[in-house]
Specification:
- The protein is α+β, with helices and mostly antiparallel strands and 181 residues long.
- It has five helices and six strands; from the N terminus they run ββββαααββαα.
- It has helices at 50-57, 74-77, 83-103, 136-155, 165-172, and strands spanning 2-6, 9-16, 20-26, 31-37, 111-114, 124-129.
- The chain has a six-stranded antiparallel beta sheet, covered by helices on one side.
- A hairpin with a 2-residue loop joins β1 (2-6) and β2 (9-16).
- α3 packs across α4.
Length: 181
Protein backbone atom coordinates (compact mmCIF):
# COMPACT_ATOMS: atom_id res chain seq x y z
CA UNK A 1 0.00 0.00 0.00
CA UNK A 2 1.27 3.45 -0.83
CA UNK A 3 -0.28 6.88 -0.72
CA UNK A 4 0.54 10.44 -1.64
CA UNK A 5 -0.97 13.90 -1.51
CA UNK A 6 -0.70 16.33 -4.37
CA UNK A 7 -2.49 19.63 -4.04
CA UNK A 8 -6.17 18.96 -3.45
CA UNK A 9 -5.99 15.27 -4.26
CA UNK A 10 -5.34 12.18 -2.22
CA UNK A 11 -4.09 9.00 -3.92
CA UNK A 12 -3.80 5.47 -2.58
CA UNK A 13 -2.71 2.24 -4.26
CA UNK A 14 -3.45 -1.16 -2.74
CA UNK A 15 -2.64 -4.69 -3.85
CA UNK A 16 -4.86 -7.59 -2.79
CA UNK A 17 -3.44 -11.08 -3.16
CA UNK A 18 -3.49 -12.26 -6.75
CA UNK A 19 -7.03 -11.01 -7.29
CA UNK A 20 -6.94 -7.27 -7.97
CA UNK A 21 -5.26 -3.90 -7.57
CA UNK A 22 -7.13 -0.77 -6.50
CA UNK A 23 -6.03 2.82 -7.13
CA UNK A 24 -7.99 5.55 -5.36
CA UNK A 25 -7.99 9.28 -6.02
CA UNK A 26 -10.10 11.45 -3.78
CA UNK A 27 -10.96 14.77 -5.34
CA UNK A 28 -12.64 17.76 -3.76
CA UNK A 29 -16.10 16.70 -4.98
CA UNK A 30 -15.83 12.99 -5.81
CA UNK A 31 -13.77 9.82 -5.57
CA UNK A 32 -12.20 7.98 -8.51
CA UNK A 33 -11.33 4.31 -8.13
CA UNK A 34 -9.56 2.14 -10.64
CA UNK A 35 -10.06 -1.57 -10.12
CA UNK A 36 -7.70 -3.84 -12.07
CA UNK A 37 -8.74 -7.47 -11.87
CA UNK A 38 -5.91 -9.96 -11.96
CA UNK A 39 -8.28 -12.80 -12.80
CA UNK A 40 -9.47 -13.97 -16.21
CA UNK A 41 -13.16 -13.64 -15.45
CA UNK A 42 -14.65 -10.15 -15.48
CA UNK A 43 -18.35 -11.05 -15.32
CA UNK A 44 -20.46 -12.27 -12.44
CA UNK A 45 -22.01 -15.04 -14.58
CA UNK A 46 -18.88 -17.07 -13.73
CA UNK A 47 -19.60 -16.55 -10.01
CA UNK A 48 -22.81 -18.47 -9.31
CA UNK A 49 -22.72 -17.75 -5.57
CA UNK A 50 -22.66 -13.96 -5.97
CA UNK A 51 -26.37 -13.41 -5.20
CA UNK A 52 -26.38 -15.68 -2.16
CA UNK A 53 -23.19 -14.05 -0.80
CA UNK A 54 -24.70 -10.58 -1.24
CA UNK A 55 -27.85 -11.80 0.49
CA UNK A 56 -25.74 -13.03 3.43
CA UNK A 57 -23.61 -9.91 3.81
CA UNK A 58 -25.58 -6.93 2.50
CA UNK A 59 -29.15 -7.86 1.49
CA UNK A 60 -30.09 -4.17 1.16
CA UNK A 61 -28.02 -4.03 -2.04
CA UNK A 62 -30.90 -5.62 -3.94
CA UNK A 63 -32.95 -2.46 -3.33
CA UNK A 64 -30.46 -0.29 -5.26
CA UNK A 65 -31.52 1.64 -8.30
CA UNK A 66 -29.39 0.53 -11.21
CA UNK A 67 -29.18 2.39 -14.49
CA UNK A 68 -28.21 -0.04 -17.22
CA UNK A 69 -28.98 -0.44 -20.90
CA UNK A 70 -31.49 -3.26 -20.40
CA UNK A 71 -33.28 -1.41 -17.54
CA UNK A 72 -32.88 -4.40 -15.25
CA UNK A 73 -33.21 -4.19 -11.49
CA UNK A 74 -29.94 -4.67 -9.62
CA UNK A 75 -31.18 -8.07 -8.42
CA UNK A 76 -31.44 -9.14 -12.08
CA UNK A 77 -28.35 -7.29 -13.31
CA UNK A 78 -26.05 -8.81 -10.67
CA UNK A 79 -26.43 -12.27 -12.22
CA UNK A 80 -24.49 -11.19 -15.31
CA UNK A 81 -22.72 -7.90 -14.82
CA UNK A 82 -19.14 -6.70 -14.79
CA UNK A 83 -17.30 -7.26 -11.53
CA UNK A 84 -16.34 -3.58 -11.45
CA UNK A 85 -20.03 -2.66 -11.59
CA UNK A 86 -20.73 -5.09 -8.75
CA UNK A 87 -17.93 -3.51 -6.69
CA UNK A 88 -19.42 -0.04 -7.29
CA UNK A 89 -22.73 -1.18 -5.76
CA UNK A 90 -20.98 -2.94 -2.87
CA UNK A 91 -19.11 0.27 -2.04
CA UNK A 92 -22.25 2.39 -2.37
CA UNK A 93 -24.08 0.09 0.04
CA UNK A 94 -21.33 0.13 2.66
CA UNK A 95 -20.92 3.92 2.34
CA UNK A 96 -24.68 4.35 2.78
CA UNK A 97 -24.70 2.14 5.88
CA UNK A 98 -21.78 4.00 7.45
CA UNK A 99 -23.23 7.42 6.72
CA UNK A 100 -26.68 6.41 7.97
CA UNK A 101 -25.16 5.10 11.21
CA UNK A 102 -23.34 8.41 11.73
CA UNK A 103 -25.86 10.92 10.41
CA UNK A 104 -29.15 9.04 10.93
CA UNK A 105 -30.41 10.03 7.47
CA UNK A 106 -30.50 8.60 3.98
CA UNK A 107 -27.82 9.70 1.56
CA UNK A 108 -28.12 10.56 -2.11
CA UNK A 109 -25.03 8.70 -3.27
CA UNK A 110 -24.32 8.12 -6.92
CA UNK A 111 -21.84 5.92 -8.69
CA UNK A 112 -20.81 5.14 -12.23
CA UNK A 113 -18.59 2.41 -13.62
CA UNK A 114 -16.98 2.52 -17.05
CA UNK A 115 -14.20 0.75 -18.94
CA UNK A 116 -12.42 0.78 -22.28
CA UNK A 117 -10.70 -2.50 -22.98
CA UNK A 118 -9.58 -1.27 -26.38
CA UNK A 119 -7.14 1.11 -24.74
CA UNK A 120 -6.61 -0.57 -21.33
CA UNK A 121 -6.12 -4.17 -20.20
CA UNK A 122 -9.24 -6.31 -19.93
CA UNK A 123 -10.50 -6.21 -16.36
CA UNK A 124 -9.71 -2.51 -15.78
CA UNK A 125 -12.71 -0.65 -14.37
CA UNK A 126 -13.11 3.01 -13.46
CA UNK A 127 -15.58 3.75 -10.68
CA UNK A 128 -16.63 7.30 -9.82
CA UNK A 129 -18.47 7.88 -6.54
CA UNK A 130 -20.15 11.07 -5.34
CA UNK A 131 -18.07 11.02 -2.16
CA UNK A 132 -15.88 14.04 -1.47
CA UNK A 133 -12.35 14.11 -0.10
CA UNK A 134 -13.69 15.34 3.26
CA UNK A 135 -15.31 11.93 3.71
CA UNK A 136 -12.12 9.90 3.39
CA UNK A 137 -12.75 8.17 6.72
CA UNK A 138 -16.08 6.88 5.39
CA UNK A 139 -14.41 5.73 2.19
CA UNK A 140 -11.64 3.85 3.99
CA UNK A 141 -14.10 2.04 6.24
CA UNK A 142 -16.32 1.14 3.27
CA UNK A 143 -13.30 0.02 1.25
CA UNK A 144 -12.19 -2.29 4.03
CA UNK A 145 -15.55 -4.01 4.04
CA UNK A 146 -15.99 -3.90 0.27
CA UNK A 147 -12.56 -5.32 -0.49
CA UNK A 148 -13.10 -8.14 1.97
CA UNK A 149 -16.46 -9.03 0.42
CA UNK A 150 -15.04 -8.80 -3.11
CA UNK A 151 -12.28 -11.24 -2.14
CA UNK A 152 -14.89 -13.67 -0.82
CA UNK A 153 -16.95 -13.33 -4.00
CA UNK A 154 -13.97 -13.79 -6.32
CA UNK A 155 -12.77 -16.80 -4.36
CA UNK A 156 -16.26 -18.33 -4.53
CA UNK A 157 -15.74 -19.48 -8.11
CA UNK A 158 -13.61 -22.35 -6.84
CA UNK A 159 -15.02 -25.12 -4.69
CA UNK A 160 -14.52 -23.54 -1.30
CA UNK A 161 -16.64 -23.72 1.83
CA UNK A 162 -19.11 -20.92 2.52
CA UNK A 163 -17.77 -17.96 4.54
CA UNK A 164 -17.52 -18.59 8.25
CA UNK A 165 -20.38 -17.32 10.35
CA UNK A 166 -18.07 -15.23 12.55
CA UNK A 167 -16.74 -13.42 9.48
CA UNK A 168 -20.25 -12.55 8.35
CA UNK A 169 -21.10 -11.39 11.88
CA UNK A 170 -17.97 -9.21 11.94
CA UNK A 171 -18.93 -7.45 8.73
CA UNK A 172 -22.51 -6.95 9.88
CA UNK A 173 -21.21 -5.26 13.05
CA UNK A 174 -19.45 -2.70 10.81
CA UNK A 175 -15.99 -3.76 11.88
CA UNK A 176 -13.77 -4.76 8.96
CA UNK A 177 -11.22 -7.48 9.62
CA UNK A 178 -7.85 -6.05 10.64
CA UNK A 179 -5.93 -7.70 7.81
CA UNK A 180 -7.87 -6.07 4.95
CA UNK A 181 -5.20 -3.44 4.18
Amino acid sequence: MSNSRRGDNFALKCFFDDLFVINIKQRRTHTEITLQLLTDDVLTEKLPQVSSLLEQFIPQIFEHNCFNGAQLSFAQEVKNTEIGHLFEHVLLEYISQIKFTREKKQTGLKGETYWDWNSEPRGTFHIVLSLSREESDVLLEALGKGVHLLKIILNSQTAQPAPKKELIDTLKRNKPPLNVF
